[in-house]
Design a protein that fits this description.
Elements: H1 10-40, H2 44-81, H3 84-110, H4 113-119, H5 127-139, H6 142-156, H7 161-183, H8 193-217, H9 229-264, H10 269-285, H11 287-305, H12 309-345, H13 349-361, H14 366-381, H15 385-411, H16 413-438, H17 447-467
Helix pairs in contact: 1-7, 1-10, 1-11, 1-12, 2-3, 2-5, 2-6, 2-9, 2-10, 2-11, 3-5, 3-6, 3-9, 4-5, 5-8, 6-8, 7-8, 9-15, 10-13, 11-12, 11-14, 12-13, 12-14, 12-16, 13-16, 14-15, 14-16, 15-16
Length: about 475
């Protein structure tokens, strides 16, 4: 097995990885925005209901992405080491692990719909709408988790084109099916929010088939021999060593959104709907930093496994600078067009006001937030997930939660959004100052390995100098 990412100019390699991911992530958000747009046509109550589901859906999606991060990190480093059989075993066992996880969370979710969303602040008239959507979503959770894990294994091989095409397939299917099942057509009855969930389910079935098909027939990364219990536990332990901290890191964002939703709920249904709309538009605005963060993990993983440490440091520097530039551009665009963008989805003045406030203030921090995304993904790729988790916990517990609560008491909804902005900026600055240390192999080696690592590092720096 050849490591595709350990040779060639760093900037060109990152560009080749990131460009397909831009399209792929755009497809994911087109999937989400299609749901938002068509549901908004049903009314403000329906939009508020799906906004309440957003934090919970994101939490469970984050668990899937955490498992995928573990797969990507471990598999990329093993590819760098050149052990193909181990790559196959890890890829197959990761899919088995995802099925086990789905069974647990689907069962818990189906039995806690009403109390969970009531605790999040949903009013009694919204609970039936939320139940219609989530009861179907939980049943189809396997079609969300397994493709995410499978696509992570494909990206670990250095292939971001196929995952992007698979995500595009899902988005296209969802955009076509949403209006059919939500509003009805011909023999298909109008199902409202339940129809949005069914459309998503059918689309994700197609994604699962495409992902598993590519893994087996093209990359030959699936094996069908039954592993021993000892082998399976060893693989799961290896995957979870990164996957569990990565899951915890991924959960920070939806937990923040859940906390913000509960604070914003006191300002009315329109404020919650506007916040939910802005959150989905924000994800679209952050597409470039998200593409970079999705690409940096496999890149640093393969190069770290191959002991190409100079390339790791260079990739972080280039990614951080680009995130800052993109963040500045988006802040200007959204700051000048926020009301018009929000009104295109929902003309309700309360919804437009809430969304506009968010899209004017929070984008100031998007450059720093992109650095946080990239740093977290890189740390997971380097096999240092606890550092990524610590950074996210600091952002949530010590900055965002107290600042958001204080801001809501002093300045209302503006204070909540201001807390988001300030937290992003402070953590992004810290990540910038620490990145050189993270990419230094000497920080975590024993004295007996120091000499050999020094020789390898010198060779890497010479290669990097020649490439420049």
């Amino acid at each position: 097995m050849k490591s595709k990412l350990t040779e060639g100019q760093v900037s060109i390699q990152l560009l080749k990885l990131s460009l397909p991911m831009v399209w792929g992530i755009l497809s994911i958000f087109a999937f989400s925005l299609a749901d938002t747009y068509f549901v908004a046509q049903l009314g403000t109550k329906e939009l508020a209901a799906i906004s309440f589901t957003f934090p919970v859906v994101t939490v469970l999606s984050s668990i899937a992405m955490g498992l995928g991060t573990g797969v990507s990190s471990i598999v990329a480093r093993v590819i760098g080491e050149g052990d193909r059989l181990k790559v196959q075993r890890l890829t197959t066992d990761s899919l088995l692990l995802s099925v086990a996880v789905v069974g647990i969370f689907s069962t818990l979710g189906l039995n806690t719909i009403d109390p969970l969303f009531s605790a999040l602040g949903a009013k009694s008239e919204l609970i039936p709408l939320i139940r219609d959507y989530m009861s179907i979503w939980y049943l189809g959770m396997v079609f969300l988790v397994a493709p995410l894990v499978g696509n992570s294994a494909i990206r670990a091989c250095g292939n971001t084109i196929i995952p992007s095409l698979i995500m595009t397939l899902a988005a296209g299917m969802n955009i076509l099916l949403d209006p059919l099942f939500i509003f009805g057509w011909g023999a298909i009855p109008a199902l409202g929010l339940k129809g949005a969930a069914i459309a998503s389910l059918i689309s994700r079935v197609g994604v699962l088939v495409a992902s598993l098909g590519f893994l087996h027939f093209r990359e030959r990364l699936l094996i069908f021999t039954v592993p021993s219990l000892q082998t399976l536990i060893k693989s799961w332990r290896s995957l979870l060593s990164v996957g569990l901290p990565a899951t915890a890191t991924s959960l920070i964002s939806p937990l923040s959104v859940s906390f913000a939703t509960s604070l914003i709920a006191q300002y009315g249904t329109e404020a919650v709907a506007g916040f939910g709309l802005a959150s989905r538009l924000e994800a679209l605005a952050l597409i470039i930093p998200l593409a970079i963060s999705a690409s940096i993990g496999p890149f640093v993983g393969q190069n770290w496994g191959a002991q190409q440490y100079g390339r790791v440091k260079r990739s972080l520097q280039l990614s951080f600078f680009f995130c800052l530039g993109w963040g500045g551009l988006i802040a200007v665009l959204l700051g000048t067009m926020a009301p018009e963008i929000a009104a295109w989805f929902d003309s309700d003045p309360g919804v437009v006001n809430s969304a506009s406030l968010y899209l004017t203030l929070v984008p100031i921090s998007y450059g720093a937030l992109g650095i946080v995304f990239t740093a977290s993904s890189a740390l997971n790729g380097l096999g240092k997930p606890m550092l990524a988790l610590g950074m996210s916990l600091f952002r949530l517990l010590l900055l965002y939660l107290p600042l958001a609560y204080l801001g809501s008491q002093l300045f209302g909804i503006v204070g909540i959004f201001g807390a988001t902005c300030l937290s992003n900026v402070l953590v992004g600055l810290w990540a910038w100052l620490q990145h050189s240390r993270w990419s230094n192999p000497f920080a975590e080696v024993t004295p007996d390995k120091l000499l050999s690592l020094s020789e390898v590092s010198t060779q890497d720096e010479t290669k990097e100098h020649q490439l420049r």
